[in-house]
Amino acid sequence: MSLLPFARRKPAAPPSPEAAMESLLAGFSIEVMPRTAEKVEDFRALLPAGTRVYVAHIEGTPIEDMVRTARRIAAEGFPVMPHFPARLIRDRAELADWIARYQGEAGVDQALLLGGGVATPAGDFDNSMQLIETGLFDRAGFRRLHVAGHPEGNRDIPGGETALMDALRWKQDYANRSDAAFAITTQFCFEAAPVIAWAQALHAAGIAMPVHLGIAGPAKLQTLIKFAIACGVGPSLRVLQKRAMDVTKLLLPYEPADVLSDLAAHKAAHPDFAVAQVHFFPLGGIGATAIWARDHGGAAGRPAAAITG
């Protein structure tokens, strides 16, 4: 009696580069400030429906301006995630006031919690863990909390990589006990290899929060280098420095095609890759970044107005 041969199932063909890019850009988020948001006539003409819009809180910005911006963007149908920078918040009462304003006036129920990037705290808080420990976000029913990540380290945090990883372990432990959805939103970088290595280190450390990877949108090279140095971008800054040395590229705007193509290919080959979404820093303008996402992201970049209009 002969055994029937079993046909071997052919492995699935890898997605095309275009499909891999569209998959990576699906659900991307973007960051604005009150002054940059004012330049946008209608976010629906630029962003896909459901795009999460972070509102960055820069030192010196009145909370009234922040809430007004959040309210306007929410009214246009986009979920808003304001920054809560620990070192800019004086005390528990001010934190409670901010939460109440965002929630009551703009319907906000999600937040990015971070240290704040200033050397001297304005009051009682020094880091995002202290904000979490107040329990105020839990009591207010915030359904999503993001925390900061630094694939290439952060020179402003004492203790270096060890301290950063310990803080993420603490936040992972809290996320495991929280009803809110947690994720890590990172500083921007310009090279895939450091991100991949960092994601592997997160996995080894037992940190399972999904990563929303910071990516700089299209911008002038000089602008990006200035921001990258100011924000403490690490070794991947060499991508910009190398480009600056090439006379043929010096005057051309930077675009994130190379780093995103490499990450898209890696994610297609490794579906469990920690990077779940892309978070754009529109350093060359919100419009320029949105147009780039539309031109390179397929359906993932189609503006809401193009679908409903």
Walk me through the topology:
Blueprint: H1 17-25, E1 29-32, H2 34-37, E2 53-55, H3 63-75, E3 80-85, H4 92-106, E4 110-114, H5 128-133, H6 136-139, E5 144-149, H7 160-177, E6 181-188, H8 192-204, E7 211-216, H9 221-230, H10 237-244, H11 247-250, H12 257-269, E8 275-281, H13 286-296, H14 304-308
Parallel strand pairs: 1-2, 1-8, 2-3, 3-4, 4-5, 5-6, 6-7, 7-8
Helix pairs in contact: 1-12, 3-4, 9-10
Tell me briefly what this model is.
The chain has 309 residues and is an alpha/beta fold. 43% of the residues lie in helices and 15% in strands.
Please describe the structure with a list of short key phrases separated by commas or semicolons:
TIM Barrel, 14 helices, 43% helix, alpha/beta, 309 residues
